[in-house]
Please model this.
Amino acid sequence: MAAPDELFCWEGDWGLPSVSTDCLVVLAYAQFAGAPLKVRKICNPWRSPSGSLPAFRTSQKETLSRTSDIIIHLRKQKFNADYDLSAKEGADSLAFISLMDEKLKPALIYTFWIEPKNYVDVTRRWFAEHMPFPLNFFLPGRMQSQQLEKLRLLQGDERLEAGEELEKELYRDATECLNLLSQRLGSQKFFFGDSPSSLDAYVFGHLAPILRCKLPNGKLQQHLKSLDNLANFCSNILLLYFPRDGRDGCSQKSPPQPDAGDFDNVPSKRRKQLLSAVVALGAMLGYALLTGIVSIQHVQQEALEEPPDLEDMGSHEEEGDG
Amino acid sequence: MIRVNERVLLCLSLTAAEPWPENATLYQPLKGEGFFSSSCSLYHLQTYLRMCGLPVQVVCRPNAEYMSPSGKIPFIHVGNQVVSELGPIVQFSKAKGHSLSDGLDDVQRAEMKAYMELVNNMLLTAELFIQWCDETTVSQITRHRYGTPYSWPLNLILAYQKQWEVRRKMNAVGWGGKTVDQVYEDVSQCCQALSQRLGTQPYFFKIPTELDALVFGHLFTILTTQLTNTELLERVRSYSNLLSFCRRIEQTYFESKDS
Amino acid sequence: MNTTLSLGSVQTCFKKVVCLFCSCLTSCCRCQTLRRARERSTLSCDCHGVLHEGGLVVVTLATVRAPFSRRAESRTTCHKGLKRRPVAMGAVHAKSMDPLPMHGKDLGVNPDDLMEHPEPEPDAKQEILENKDVVVQHVNIQGLGRTKEDLLGYEISDVFNAKNLIDVMKKAHIARQRLLRLGIFKEVEVLIDTSEGADALPNGLDVTFEVNEIKRLTGSYNTMVGNNEGSMVLGLKLPNMIGRAEKLTFQFSYGTKETSYGLSFFKPQPGYFERNLTLNMYKVTGQFPWSSLKETDRGVSAEFNFPVGPTGHMLKWEGVWRELGCLARSASFAVREESGHSLKSALSHTMSIDSRNSAIFPSSGALLRINQELAGFTGGDASFFKEDFELQLNRRLFWDSVLSASLWGGMLFPIEGKPSCIADRFYLGGPTSVRGFGMYSIGPQSEGDYLGGEAYWAGGLHLYTPLPFRPGRGGFGDLFRTHFFLNAGNLCNLNYGEGPRAHLQKLAECIRWSYGAGIVLRLGNIARLELNYCIPMGVQSGDRICDGVQFGAGIRFL
Model:
């Protein structure tokens, strides 16, 4: 094969190899199966061959963007993490993957994209800071509306909105799902014995962001942390399969983060100040222009309507006098 | 926290004290209206309630889909409560003191839930796909049946609206680009998993559970519904243990009681 | 001599009118007198007498001179110029600042009443022209762009029938009003000139209408307040689209609750503006929290308006796709059962007579509106026959206070045994209907959601007085009234097996009524705000009451 398979995925942070669940699943699966991938971590979805992330470019220059397709492709390339599973275990992993799709995914979308505080403080901020210049203004917002649309379709509710009721419902499903996963895992190292399978990749991909990301509204995280075996399962995988990212995250996180945060903040603050000044100026100018036009029109209208009257009257008066 | 928990317990015990009312009503659209996915849920709900031994009256309403609080059909109206979908109904009947899965241990319950989601995730989506995204089925069967209760321009408008909505949903769950053959393949995969899990047992677990009701509902509908081609039917038929499972449940819960 | 004007004291009112004869701006000093004769404003300044629309009151200068001479002298200084101008300048500008509402009728001016007396400074040629018969030879319209001339032909043809100069002026004035009423011109000026050219007759006149067309596309932006909701409305209008006063309107409204849009096409019959056809296409969304109901209507309708004598009629066909849904999960099951899609195709007819002098604060006149609707005959799921009426009588009492009585009633008969839909039934109660009760919160209900009724009646007796706001008369104070009211009404469902007597009995028992007092504020000329202190009586179980202060806005009021 001429060129190795290429995987485009979101950059990592918070001690994770990537911030996106789907990317994490693919990365983890590739690691478990030992597939040699050329991983490109980018923060500009427009640079991916499919326009979205993750994207997978095969050696035949085919582009895959669905997680399941990528895994199937890897499996066909003989990188199969599920090789040792029995038929029944295969059925079980299919079932649990479905369980996560149905119960955990909506809650994940909600926590990261819909919950207003989390979205504004963490998700949007992260994407806005990492994306290149013009994109960071509109892409996060567009991604959010896409996710909201997706959640609406998944829940089958056209006019669903962030709110306590929705949150309660989604989190109830999600915590139930987490409990079930925890019960299924028990005290094992991985879901099916000692070696990781595709189910492990899925579970890791879904749980790791919840566990590692510091969210203002961290109800799911709290619950997950209380399930020791699942929390350990995630950190184990991070330690074993993504040692660099895990360490990076930790080392970056504990001492330099506040520092880096401050350092980061100053220019962004300046930029914000400048930006707000420009916006305010623009708005004022626009307003002035707008009202100016209106008033000009007004004057014109009056000029058209009123003076003839006056003239008329004036002329009559003259006539009358004369 | 403790006080809240106590209150919840109190609540549960109170509702449990209230017996299942005689006038419980199950609402469903007119026969054949939503034909595929709706009759699936009708069967699995009825099966579940029969397994629990809970009497229910079935009422047909053309607007059942819109009456339901979640937009899913059918739903039950018990006392002054309206509950739709299997999950909430199971919880509800549990609160009333009727439960099928009490005899299972934690791991089994986790597996049961997971398999239920597998059925929802794959079989249900596949049914919706065939019903609304396969052009021959849509034009020959679905559109006509869906529009039956409405008068002229509305029947077409609503059918197209529904089709559009289902297609968007398919895109959202990542099924947008699939072909019918891929969907048949998914159904096979799901049946394969179910068949593996069932093995030679009479039920998926030692006792009949909501999973059995759910699987029966879907498979029985697929087996008894006439489609434009028999591909789907053939795929399901190739799993003999699933076939005999369906027959067994039909005999136990439907034929004996209907006669 | 006409004696109408010689009686009564003269009071000043602030209404400005423009003299038809000399186009001077003047204050109407004879409103009082005139109003007594017939409620309308003058068309001319003091010195040129009073021309009354349809009222045959035309008073010559000489008649008026005696009692009003001073006033006339001081206020209007231009009248002397009038007589000379048709000759000297060759033109008369007829212009009005407040266009009269026209009803397509001729001014019933009897030529015998016109007694023109010569001015103190006589002009020979002028007099000849004035007393002699004239012939209108040409009528020109200048400034036409996309407007088709045949349309205007109908509106101005009457000018040719004028027999003398005054008549020409009057007819030209009417023609001008008729042109303005079409809503396609920004302004219209009339020039009357002696005919020139080869074929000019010695007593020939040319009338020229100088018009200024409205722009092809106009936009608007406003905020609207309806029954307890606000919205902002963006509108686009294409007036005079094809050239015959057609109008295409598009409205998009983004409301506090829902968005809606509407597209309408208006086409009047050329020469008979009041007979017109309107085609509509719309989507309207409404939320009705008192029923936990949400309704989205998408529909098309065709309306045909035509006057018959003093009555206005409207024939309408409407095809509407209604989508009902629950506003909240907690909605009652009775409302749930109603949700879903339905199609209504209905023919309706409305007859109305409105002789009130104002839509919001009438002081005299009556309104009768009768509406009947037949649904299901032309297709659709809903089938019923619905009949309702509205009657309002006003009478002026002492000190400008007004006694007003209104009565509403309606009934809905389901056809073919189909139960009536929640969206078709009647509702009662609220700050502008039966006061003292919650908005539409009277009658049959289920778990707190009001389901409406198939029959209702409501009556109200009001005493309006401008009293505390009297000092602001003529300005701010005209926006307010104080009122004392007594409202009553009932709403119920009928069982059609019981016969009409049982129905009447049912409507007569358990009557809800209320009384109180409050302040009414006029919002433009379409809506009003009320702040009332109400005392509800005859409350039945299930009714939601509003004991004490109640505030609300409404377009229709009891």
Summary: Strands of chain B lie at 25-28, 57-60, 75-78, 81-84.
